[in-house]
Write a structure and sequence with these properties.
Length: 199
């Protein structure tokens, strides 16, 4: 039996009715991050469709032959993914999202300085803010797990992203960033679904 003091009165609760504080808090934390990552995934998917229509000429535009080596690798061996330690999984997401965030910031700077596309910049800034919110949540999760927050140096952004030679190159870079971020956020949703299921 577990005794709780409430207003000076001793209340006896059966042990089975008392949830583990750490288990409860982590389940709630992962539920919040799952909800936010799902929202971000949907928002980026919608923005990608709009971007392809406005910048590439059609929503059906797809070309996976174009890559940016500076962006995180999305595909991962399933066995490795399944057996990752809880803290390592969160640390990796933080590092990868920071890279996406730096690329979005560089794209915003170029758009503001050269093309003055205020609506696109506004949409990208909202995504960047959501990334910051999700990273903050994961910092708290690592603290609860007694795992250090990874020290993330300023990710390197390709010079071509800040100063593309052709306007088409700039449009293509924006497409690649949003395309890969949409795919990566799908993985993040799976990560938090998996983490939540462990509690």
């Amino acid at each position: 039996m577990i005794y709780l003091l409430l207003l000076g009165l001793a209340i006896i609760l059966p042990k089975s009715t008392v949830l583990s504080e750490s288990s409860y808090s982590m389940k709630e934390a992962y539920s919040q991050s799952l909800a936010l990552s799902r929202k971000m995934h949907q928002d980026v998917r919608i923005l990608l469709l709009k971007y392809k229509q406005q910048q590439m000429g059609t929503q059906s535009f797809e070309d996976f032959s174009f890559l940016m080596a500076s962006l995180p690798v999305i595909n991962m061996n399933f066995s490795y993914w399944l057996n990752m330690e809880e803290g390592k999984r969160i640390q990796l997401i933080i590092k990868d999202l920071k890279v996406f965030q730096s690329h979005i910031e560089a794209k915003c700077l170029y758009e503001e300085q050269h093309l003055h596309q205020s609506q696109l910049v506004q949409d990208l800034q909202l995504i960047k803010c959501d990334i910051s919110d999700l990273v903050f949540q994961m910092h708290l999760q690592l603290k609860s797990l007694n795992v250090p927050v990874p020290v993330v140096s300023e990710p390197l952004v390709p010079k071509s992203l800040l100063n593309p030679q052709l306007e088409w190159n700039s449009k293509l870079q924006g497409y690649i960033i949003l395309r890969d971020l949409e795919q990566y956020l799908g993985k993040v949703v799976r990560d938090f679904t998996f983490l939540k299921s462990k509690y």
